[in-house]
Amino acid sequence: MSKHKYSSEYLAYIHSPQWKAKSKQCQQLTLNHCVFLPWHKSNHAHHLTYNNLEYEMPVRDIVPLSNFAHEIVHLWFFWNTPVRSVVNWLLRLLMLFCVVFWQVIWVLKQLTKLMH
Ligand SMILES: [Zn+2]
What's the pTM? Predict the structure, then answer.
């Protein structure tokens, strides 16, 4: 779906409180870190696919991205060519890794707090 072909249904959803809550939850899984540039804060939950619109599952359908990474992913080459499926699987793997990584960091931080 190109930026110019969004349906009114999609646009209504993307501005709804349900989507905002879902996007926020998705980003909390990586403690608001971008999965592609982990040193950046995430600003969006990016749709890897629109097949499950309104029933998105993090990792399968949506991943947290920073503004910059989001722009890159939507570039013609990555979004409108078969490269997109490779990018999608890469982002899914990165997200799995990021979820574990940031949760471990969080636990370590709590432990160091306890020891001081
Ligand atoms: Zn996107």
Answer: 0.88
